[in-house]
Amino acid sequence: MANHTQIAVIGGGLVGKATAVAAANAGFSTLHVAPEAPVDRRTSALMGPSVDYMTDAGLIGDPETLGVALTRIRIIDATKRLLRAPETVFSASEFGYRAFGWNFANARLGESFSQAGLVNKNLALRAATLKSARRVDGNWHLELDDGDTLTVDLLVGADGKGSSVRKAAGIAVKERKFDQAALVCDLELGRGLDGESVEFHYPNGPFTLVPAGGNRANLVWIDRLDTLEDARSEPGRFVSTLNEKSRHLFGAIEVASPNFVFPLSVLSVDVAGKDAAVLVGESAHAFPPIGAQGLNLGLRDVASLNACLKAANPGSYGWADAVARSYGVARRTDLMRTGAFVDGLFTSLLSPHIPAQALRSVGLWGLKTFPMLRKHAISFGMGK
Ligand SMILES: Cc1cc2nc3c(=O)[nH]c(=O)nc-3n(C[C@H](O)[C@H](O)[C@H](O)COP(=O)(O)OP(=O)(O)OC[C@H]3O[C@@H](n4cnc5c(N)ncnc54)[C@H](O)[C@@H]3O)c2cc1C
């Protein structure tokens, strides 16, 4: 007879770790199936509400000790287009915040989330991969690659863009791959950013410097994959390209870490929960890293699932079906709205068409000029 647990969370990325902790803290016996993975070298700008969730859920302590406060955002149109947008700066103080959010190294967040899970007796961790999942008589039957089998009431897919849980649950997915990719690395600047995130908008995507403390910055450079591969193929040329792209505004730049390139796509699902299976994080949504939305949205998935679990009655027949249904309904609007916003922003940025460029310029002009519009945009960007 196979072992039984109430909830299995598949996937050991940040969203999977946060979900496993939430499920166990809500009182459910939880198995976290998370194979060993290479260190996540990305960094994440997480907005106030996400940071509040992580703090309240015990996933992190004081954000000041783990991350760097983001107090300003500067957007510079670096295209040579006919219709260019004006330079726009947003200051957190203008909107009554001390900071828009914090910039964290994913690896440090991951360590902190794992620590939070260790203290909960409801949570067991298995360094394995899900091989198959089938639903029989109201239970999910799981097979792991270490040979173990088990049954679970609720199956949670936190297993990224290629999600096996999504396939097993028969949830339809749409994915569009871009020619662009994102290159990330750490830089040491001649002059520090002092809490300001600076986005240079180029025709093939933004080149963003995010403050990482002192003179350190995290670079997220979106461009065509062949351009990125060419630029990083020779260290001397890489540094001179970085100086050029940042308009020589920050003194001499030194590369302070290896660089990594991530392919980009936009991915959405029909529904994020059905038949006692739910999808969180990139198994349910993915888009290019502009406007810092991906993990913020993933943490909102976790907060929403947490609320559904707290409202559930695990003693009742079909409780896991009910959780999946209510979660699917609860996430619908946020997933659609955020996905459409980021996709629209990215597409307008890349568009060679004058009307799209005009729309973006007018949009940024409006954001520069009208306080209500600025307030609304910031509120939306922060996921409020
Ligand atoms: C360059 C870049 C910069 C970004 N910057 C930001 C930012 O500033 N702010 C922000 O909010 N977001 C940002 N994002 C987005 C953010 O990084 C992602 O949304 C987030 O990391 C996704 O986490 P996840 O746990 O859903 O997925 P993943 O990190 O992809 O984790 C999925 C996990 O599932 C595991 N897995 C897969 N299949 C199986 C299986 N069969 N069994 C068991 N495990 C399995 C994998 O090994 C992996 O560990 C950025 C993304 C990129 C690419």
TrEMBL record:
Pathway involvement of the protein, from the record: Cofactor biosynthesis; ubiquinone biosynthesis
GO molecular function, one term: monooxygenase activity
Names of the cofactor(s): FAD
Name by which UniProt lists this protein: FAD-dependent monooxygenase
Matching Pfam families: FAD_binding_3 (PF01494)
Chain segments annotated as transmembrane: none
Domain of life per record: Bacteria
Family under the similarity heading: Belongs to the UbiH/COQ6 family.
SUPFAM superfamilies (alphabetical): FAD/NAD(P)-binding domain (SSF51905)
Keywords: FAD, Flavoprotein, Monooxygenase, Oxidoreductase
Positions in coiled-coil regions: none
InterPro entries: FAD-bd, FAD/NAD-bd_sf, UbiH/COQ6, UbiH/COQ6_monooxygenase
The FAD-binding domain, residue ranges: 5-312
